Amino acid sequence: MHPVVVRYTASPGSEEELGRLVARHWPALHAEGLTSDQPAVVIAVARQPGVFIEYYEWLSWEAVQEAHEHPAVRNIWDAMERVGRVEPWDGSYLVPPAGA
Fold it and tell me: What does pTM read for this prediction?
């Protein structure tokens, strides 16, 4: 398993839409067989409306790359980018660590 933490920040006026997309994100990844069975943990940041933190586990490094090929996942990612900013905690999940 390869954990990831992502911060999503909504554009002004898009807070609810981004929240709905974040809620659909892990189920879409999981339906394509890309994540572990452990459901994502999503936190809405109380002091920063429109900011969400999501934690989930990719099944493998290959799953990260495969996600880009699934239309259902791409549709959610494209919509997220239209209504806000998507920031991996540090981006390190994009490249396997040595020995992975």
Answer: 0.86
Full domain range(s) for residue 61:
2-91
Token code pair at residue 65:
């790359």
Q: Within 13 Å of residue 59, how many CA atoms lie on the same side as its CB?
A: 15
% of the chain residues with pLDDT over 90: 79
Q: Say how many domains are in the chain.
A: 1
Q: Classify residue 96: in a domain, yes or no.
A: no
